[in-house]
Design goal:
Elements: H1 6-14, H2 21-40, H3 43-59, H4 70-89, H5 98-101, H6 109-127, H7 130-141, H8 146-153, H9 157-179
Amino acid sequence: METQTDSFVMQLVQIGETARLADLFERYHVPLFRYLLHLTGNHAVSEDLVQEVFFRVLKYSRSYDPDQSFAVWLYQMARNAHFDHMRKRRGEVPEEDAREMRSSQPMPEELFARKQDTLFLRKALQQLPEEKRDVLVLSRFQNLRYEEIARILECEVGTVKVRVYRALKQLRETFCELRGEKAL
């Protein structure tokens, strides 16, 4: 059976075949979860936000334009859901994700160093300003093209390139700081 395009499936959802939303959920829930996890740093919140995004897809299905990329429209919704979540939680102290804290087994030195670097990288990413973290997650973790990111962020491609460059520079500086090294 041939796989139907995202746009075609979304058009079916628009005309009332809401059960077809499950097809889109299957295609996108994992990438959306990863995107949101990089933004929030919290598994439970990211899972909740994925559900919220698909609720919004159904609620705002009429606003989807079949001539536009479904993925771009979906990531814009995810970005908006994240911003709404952050606005509601402003001022709260973020909790550490319990799954990250679990580890009773001692690790070899090399694995420990890699895990430590991963933790430093996550922490450095979380310390970036929202707009820099967002552009890095879209470009490096979601592997979206600059043109797609420009549509999501509603800016020029050149602006995206500059933002990615500056975000990577700041990420590298923060990462090195956390490791107790001087950035090159």
